[in-house]
Amino acid sequence: MLLFIIKRLLQTIPVIFGVTLVVFLIMQMVPGDTAQVLAGEGASQETIEDLREEYGLNDPLHVQYFDYMKGLLQGDMGQSLKNERPVIDEIMVRLPISIELAIYATIVTIIFGITAGIISAVRPYSASDMTVMVIALLGISFPSFWLGMILMFIFSVELQWLPVSGWDSVQHMVLPVLALGTAGAAIVARMTRSSMLEVVRQDYIRTAKAKGIKNYLIIYKHTLRNALIPVITVVGLQFGALLGGTVLIESVFAINGLGRLILESIRMRDLPMVQGGVLVASIIFVLVNLFVDILYKFFNRRIDIN
Amino acid sequence: MKETLLEIEGLKTHFITKKGTGRVVDGIDLTVYKGETLGIVGESGCGKSMTSLSILQLVPEPGKIVAGSIKLNGDDLVTKTEKQMQAIRGNHISMIFQEPMTSLNPVITVGEQIAETIRAHQPISRKEARIKSIEMLRLVGIPSPEERAKQEPYQLSGGMRQRVVIAMALACNPELLIADEPTTALDVTIQSQIIKLMKDLQKELNMAVLFITHDLGVVAESCDRVAVMYAGEIVEKSTTEELFRKPKHPYTKGLLDSIPKINEVQEELTPMKGSIPSPFTEHSGCKFADRCPLATDICFEQHPSLVAYENDSYQVRCFHYNESTSGKDVGHAKQS
User: Fold this and answer.
1) What CATH number did the domain enclosing A138 receive?
2) Over chain A, what is the mean pLDDT?
3) Same-domain status, A170 and A274
4) What is the domain extent for residue B151?
5) Test mutation, A201, A207, A216, A302, chain B, max B CBs within 10 A
6) Residues of B with CB below 8 A from A208's CB?
7) Shortest CA gap B275–chain A (Å)
8) What is the pLDDT of residues A81-114, one digit of tens each?
9) A226 in contact with B at a CB cutoff of 8 Å?
10) Domains identified in chain B, total number
11) Is residue A40 a part of any domain in this protein?
């Protein structure tokens, strides 16, 4: 187990290294001239040239990448081209908001998803099962940003129960968290259902019945515990997908998280900021996956050995 | 006089599907006396497992008990509600399944799996149940039961797991233990250990055992009486001794002939031709007629009934038993 964790940790190093390379190259391929943006409209050709020299934009690519990596290893992601603040500082302000959003959405995913999955699986092909599964299908089909706008229209504009945008109080959080967590909840519901139906057919469930164990214990103790093992992986992967979803949701609800920061920076051609933002998001994604892998291995150890 | 524990009369368990009706168990009469071991023998698919699941009212969908009664101490189980059955399962009647590898829950410690059975039927605390579960593990011969109780099934070998399954089944001192191929998945050496263990415990706890198997060797070792099943019916019923001394139904003879014998030089085994008919097939005559070396016209036209001979000391379902063989040993009918 420990060996597995160490091995898996070491594997993340080349992955993160690869991410830096890809992020760097993509930024180079983005159309538009950074120096031009920096200098602003109507700047002289001279000013642009000076800026280009100052920021090392004239150096060959590998030199630029090397410089970038050197800074990165020292915890320096460069400075924002917009306001010259260190990129890392700006990210550290925005990141917690996005993580908060993603975690709450994951909680919604888990609670709603698993509950719905159980309701479905207990009486398969019944009316309650069908209802839950139709809702789940809709949940998967709606894009989160669209759902966000619809929710905003209903609850904020028409009913005026909840604020339209921002991230200041619990009321502010309800809609973005729901919009972001719905798709995941729907996927988890379907996964929980199919996994439970699979487990119900196992011999040990028949054994439990033959022992005279009560129905609710068979569902919660014997079935669910086994059925949740594959669901853990799905939840983990969903968390990664949620990080991507935050970009859209933060835009829709005007939340100042990492996603919105990246989006704004792209619009401003604030290259170091985009690079830093994408890199941090990627590293989080890799780490979450690592965590899920370890968790899965832990829960699956009994099955692995068979 | 032997006291009756379980009495099955006219049991029919059918699978009703769009394709038709599968007569998996098709009219079975069985009696299990207190403290005895009754074997049910037959090929895979003859309905022996469904008979046992019928007793516990655990027949899987779309199977259904359509006729008959199953009386435990005179009390009909077929009419019981699910809740009433829960109080009987694991308490009065326990069951051991074939696969020790899959019949234990992989994510629950073995101690807890035994303890929960006890708590399902007895008003005792968690702690008392845990102590009792360790006692049970010791009873079935598991070394250092205190440590083993805390382990999960994957940490135990196949033989150990089957011992755990037995401990679980016996935890509430059942009157009847149904053992469905309890040794089939085990190595031969472990097999005999488990059979010996079951026999010892049976004596100690004074319970009856319904032993379901396809292995005649296991029957010889462990059963007092045997019922031979074929295609959902009982074709022969007698004491184990009588069955091996003088098998009467051609199917039983076929089964015995297909076992290699240790004291004879045999170039080839004598397998029975054909295979068991699908439960969905309609029969007007004897279900075994297609495979029977003795079959004549009557066998294809009329359905034989189970007839008792010599003061009900044995029963046979065959038209040819009485007329051609009564009183004398026909020997093992070979295929011509």
Assistant:
1) 1.10.3720.10
2) 85
3) yes
4) 106-171
5) A207
6) 105
7) 27
8) 777 788 888 888 999 999 889 999 999 999 999 9
9) yes
10) 2
11) yes
